Amino acid sequence: MVITETDRLVLRPFELSDLDALTPILADPEVMRFSVSGPWSRERTLRFLQGCVADYAEERWGFGLWAVVHKRDAQLIGYCGLSRFADVDGVAEVEIGFRLAPEYWGRGLATEAVRAVRDYAFEHLGMRRLISMIEPENSRSIRVAEKAGMVREKEIWKWGRPVLVYAVFAGPSPM
Predict the structure, then answer these.
(1) What is the DSSP string of 78-119?
(2) Which residues, including other chains, have CB under 8 Å from residue 99's CB and lie 6 or more apart?
(3) Measuring CA to CA, how many Å separate 114 from each of 17, 20, 27, 46, 161?
(4) Distance CA 52, CA 67 (A)
(5) Cα(13)–Cα(26) distance, integer angstroms
(6) Residue 66 carries which DSSP code?
């Protein structure tokens, strides 16, 4: 099943069979540089996949983080999708999150995936606002957020450190 696609990417639900392809990506120290928990083990990646599959259920969220597959080589190259956070500076929010294998960085693929997820969330899920929480030192992710139309709103304290909140709205921003 395809959630959405672009000229170069397919975004689809994760399957547990994606474990072998995803494990080296999430074990890469550079990919996980801005992760609170650092690089992940195979077991941690399996728990992540199980959580993604659970999130897709209508009785849970009905959406989640999706596998990103590069069309040209049919390789799973990371993830991009939506996560719910019950408390972002006192407010429940839905975040666009992403991680791609480093060999696919610098090609505009993250921006392409984030834009596709943004459009899917607004057009098919009826969402009106999405955020991304990004560490101030993560200049690559800041550029992706900005290229996807997100605007810096504020800096908050989350996960024991400062993070920037970028937001995008369906239609005109209420600000």
Answers:
(1) EEEEEEEEEEETTEEEEEEEEEE-GGGTTSSHHHHHHHHHHH
(2) 25, 26, 31, 32, 78, 79
(3) 24, 24, 22, 24, 24
(4) 10
(5) 17
(6) E
Calculate the alpha carbon distances from 22 to 100, 123, 149 in Å.
Answer: 10, 28, 28
Domain residue extents for the chain? 4-128
Tens-binned pLDDT, residue by residue, of the chain (175 aa): 999 999 999 999 999 999 999 999 999 999 999 998 899 999 999 999 999 999 999 999 999 999 999 999 999 999 999 999 999 999 999 999 999 999 999 999 999 999 999 999 999 999 999 999 999 999 999 999 999 999 999 999 999 999 999 999 997 655 5
Record: fold of 4-128: Aminopeptidase (3.40.630)
